[in-house]
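[retry 2/3] MASE1 domain-containing protein: previous attempt timed out, resubmitting with same input.
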Amino acid sequence: MAAVVDTQQLRRPVVFAVQTLTVAACYFAAGRLGLVRQLTVEGAVVTPIWPPTGVAVACLLLYGLRSWLGIAIGALLVVWSIITPGPSVIGTVVGNTLAPVCACLMLRRVGFRINLARLRDGVALVFLGALGAMLISATIGAGLLVLTGKLDPGGFWAVWLAWWVGDAMGVLLVTPVLLLALGVRARPDLGRWREALGLTLIVCVLVPVATRSTLSLLFLIYPLLIWAALRFQLVGSMLCALFASVMTTDAATGGSGPFVHLTSVEVMIKLQAFNGTMALTALLLSALIAEQRNTRRSVEHACEELMEVLDHLTAGETPQGRPPPARRPRT
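[retry 2/3] MASE1 domain-containing protein: success.
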């Protein structure tokens, strides 16, 4: 018995260490991926989509608040890879860690479910997890740039807005995909694989054309999102939105397609307006459809149970399948 207890006590620190290093590695990899495409706003380099925030929020929701240490280590490694070590590094790491932790706490407070099967879960992720909590990281990050003299005070709000939207887009686009991939154990519907293949081919052809054309054809992506949400719910719509966002960001940072001849501020506004509306459409529409389908299944299940009860009563039996007790004859 003592050996078993000792083994369990030794196993917990090992599991915690492995989990922390895994979260840190995933955060760092997502950060390096996000740095591939950058924009310059008021002399400061920002990323239109910051995937590590989505990774951090997903890890906290799936594995608990103890994941904060891995997030802090990953954020520290990302910051050290792009700037020289200094006092501002600690502040940036604190902001990048505190914002996802606050997002997780607020989502738990309102009873958030990681399967995103209710409309209220989608609304909570948008307004609490993304738009609300990411105010913390944006304020700390832009404020440190001003305090350290790397940014003019007049450019604070432009950089703050770009920072905030980039972090929020990471939550809106990356967190739902990771929650579905790692947290939900639902069986894929293989009955519509032909339709899924057809939708994938159309998306892979139409999205690059829409994002590279100078005719402003980005509106063509929305019917694909609606199709994916109606037929494949959150999995299809969020994968479609993520792919479209990556392609659009690549076109915007390269100054091609509908973003040609625009200033850096105009590119940021147009890109983030498109990414934001697309992510909101995919997430909220999918959550609404999932909620309606779950409600319909509940109603159908209740109707089936009611029919079984009526059948038993009609046959002269109790709902448990037993005949009613015999009455004693009167003397």
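[retry 2/3] MASE1 domain-containing protein: The chain has two domains: 1-186, 187-322.
[retry 2/3] clearing retry counter.
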